[in-house]
Amino acid sequence: MDLTRSLPEREVLLSGSRTRFWRAALALLISVLLVIFLLFVTLPVVSLFLRISPEAFFRSLAAPVVLDALSLSLVTATVSTAIVVLFGTPLALVNARRDYAGRELVDTLTDLPMVLPPAVAGLALLMAFGRRGVVGQYLDVFGIQIAFTTLAVVTAQVFVASPFYIRQARASFEAIDRLYEDAARTLGASPGTVALRITIPLAWGGLVSGAILSFARALGEFGATIMFAGNFQGRTQTMPLAIYTTMQGDMNAAISLSIILVVISFAVISAVKIVTRRRY
């Protein structure tokens, strides 16, 4: 350090050096924590791909348990998502555009499946729609059984996945400028026409994102499904349930199903990001 500088100048230089040092230390700490976190998240996923060869992976895909679980999961998750979109869109639109008594309670009940433990959700569905349930006992009189059937899988998926779509749909509807809707009404458009021709098209990106998230949640549902629908191959055994079953005797099949779900999950996240980016 130049000793010819005045004391205030030396203090300014020392202060600047300390600031740069602490900034560098903070940046290093953040970098280390980021690397540790990324390793923690990615290492288990990468391990799935490292523990099975391509030959074993494709050979496992031909196993009946894998094919049955894959086809059942895709079909039930698609049906569940369609039901959620069909019934959830009007509910989200009403809650976004109408102020009525009990709206906060409706919102709370709509979000409740997101925070319920899966086992509680499954038991609740069983107590409601089981053969001796509150509603199921009356359905049983007409020979209608829901529990431990494929319909139970769809019911469980709808129950746990619906909040993901409804929350996203409501947020998308609330983000729309009401000026467009008001202009359509002044031109004589009915409420239904406004919703179908103005509101829904403007919120389309958010609705698609919500539907994709709902599909992914339905596809990965485990706890409520095994409690309410059981674990019967070809009838109620979805991919998460098949993973739980096959890992006890056929690890390659379990890993193969897990890899498929990882790929689908990655595709879902990518799709949501692309749709969201296009909205802005």
Automatic annotation (TrEMBL):
<feature type="transmembrane region" description="Helical">
    <location>
        <begin position="108"/>
        <end position="130"/>
    </location>
</feature>
<feature type="transmembrane region" description="Helical">
    <location>
        <begin position="70"/>
        <end position="96"/>
    </location>
</feature>
<feature type="transmembrane region" description="Helical">
    <location>
        <begin position="142"/>
        <end position="166"/>
    </location>
</feature>
<feature type="domain" description="ABC transmembrane type-1">
    <location>
        <begin position="70"/>
        <end position="270"/>
    </location>
</feature>
<dbReference type="InterPro" id="IPR000515">
    <property type="entry name" value="MetI-like"/>
</dbReference>
<dbReference type="InterPro" id="IPR011867">
    <property type="entry name" value="ModB_ABC"/>
</dbReference>
<dbReference type="InterPro" id="IPR005667">
    <property type="entry name" value="Sulph_transpt2"/>
</dbReference>
<dbReference type="Pfam" id="PF00528">
    <property type="entry name" value="BPD_transp_1"/>
</dbReference>
<protein>
    <submittedName>
        <fullName>ABC transporter permease</fullName>
    </submittedName>
</protein>
<feature type="transmembrane region" description="Helical">
    <location>
        <begin position="21"/>
        <end position="50"/>
    </location>
</feature>
<keyword id="KW-0764">Sulfate transport</keyword>
<keyword id="KW-0812">Transmembrane</keyword>
<keyword id="KW-0813">Transport</keyword>
<feature type="transmembrane region" description="Helical">
    <location>
        <begin position="253"/>
        <end position="275"/>
    </location>
</feature>
<comment type="similarity">
    <text>Belongs to the binding-protein-dependent transport system permease family.</text>
</comment>
<keyword id="KW-0472">Membrane</keyword>
<dbReference type="InterPro" id="IPR035906">
    <property type="entry name" value="MetI-like_sf"/>
</dbReference>
<keyword id="KW-0500">Molybdenum</keyword>
<dbReference type="GO" id="GO:0005886">
    <property type="term" value="C:plasma membrane"/>
</dbReference>
<keyword id="KW-1133">Transmembrane helix</keyword>
<feature type="transmembrane region" description="Helical">
    <location>
        <begin position="194"/>
        <end position="216"/>
    </location>
</feature>
<dbReference type="InterPro" id="IPR006469">
    <property type="entry name" value="NifC_ABC_porter"/>
</dbReference>
